Amino acid sequence: MAMHVTVLQHVPFEWIGSMEPWLRERGASITTIRLWEERTLPTPEVSDLIVVMGGPMSVNDEAAHPWLVAEKAFLREVIAAGVPMLGVCLGAQLIASALGAWVGSNPQKEIGWFPIRATQPGSEGAASKIFDGASRFAFPASVEVFHWHGETFDLPPGAVRLAESAACENQAFQLGQHVIGMQFHLETTPDTADDLIEHCGDELVPGPYIQTAVAMRATPAASYAAINTLCGEVLAYVLGER
C-alpha cells in the first residue's frame, strides 16, 4: 500500500523542498493543506506521515490567524493517534504550543547557515527518563544547517532535546518514537532558500547570527546535499525505518 503524506503549509513560499523527491522515490502520495485558504483538516489516521512546515507568523497569532487553533487541536490528535510527524521551524513550535509549552522570542534571531550540536541523553533532566530503553534520533555531534527563525520554545512535556546551538538552546526535540520537531530547515534547497530571501528579506538586518543574502546565496551545493541527506535520515526515523 502506498504511503500517504499530509503536508500542513502555512504560506505559499515555504515548501517541503528536498523532502518531496525523497518521498516520491518511495511511492508516496502527498496531500497539501494550505491553511491560509483551507479550513478542513483530515482525520489523523488517513496519513502515514504528517509534515508541519514553517511560516513567518507566530504560534501566538491566533487572533490574526484563527485557523491556528484548529491546527493545534489537530496536532494533539495526531500525537494521540501515534501517527509519525515532523515539524519544521514554525511546525516544531506549533507542536510544542499544542502540548502546552511556552513559545516566544529567542534572544537572537538565527538566519542563515550556523552549526547545531547534538545533545547527550540525560541533558534534558527528568524528561529523559521516558527514553530509558528506547531509541532517540542521533544528530551529528556538530553540523552546519540552515536557519530562519526568531522564536523558540520550551520543551513540551515528555519530550527530549536532541540538538542545541550557540544562539538557541532548544533546536530539536523528540516526543515518543515518531514525532520530531526542528527549529532549522534540513529540507532547504537553493530554490527554497531564495524563496525565503525574496519574501522575508526585510529580516536580514545586522546581527551576530544573521547572514546576508549574498552569503546565503554563495553556499556551496555540498552544504545543501549534506542537510538534505540528514533530512532523509530524520524522515526515515520517524517513519520507523531504523
Structural commentary:
This protein is α/β, with parallel strands linked by helices and 242 residues long. It has one domain: Rossmann fold (3-Layer(aba) Sandwich). 27% of the residues lie in helices and 25% in strands. The chain is built from six helices and nine strands. It has a nine-stranded mixed sheet, sandwiched between helices. Helix 2 crosses helix 3. The longest helix is centred in the C-terminal third of the chain and has 18 residues, at 221-238. It is globular, with a radius of gyration of 17 Å. Mean pLDDT is 93; it is low at 125-132.
Principal-axes shape call: globular
What portion of residues belong to β-strands? 25-35%
Q: How many β-strand stretches?
A: 9
Structural class: alpha/beta
Helix content: 25-40%
Low-confidence stretches: 125-132
Count of alpha and pi helical runs:
6
Annotated CATH homologous superfamily: Class I glutamine amidotransferase (GATase) domain
Please summarize the sheet with the most strands.
9 strands, mixed
Largest beta sheet: strand ordering: 2-1-3-4-9-8-7-5-6
CATH architecture: 3-Layer(aba) Sandwich
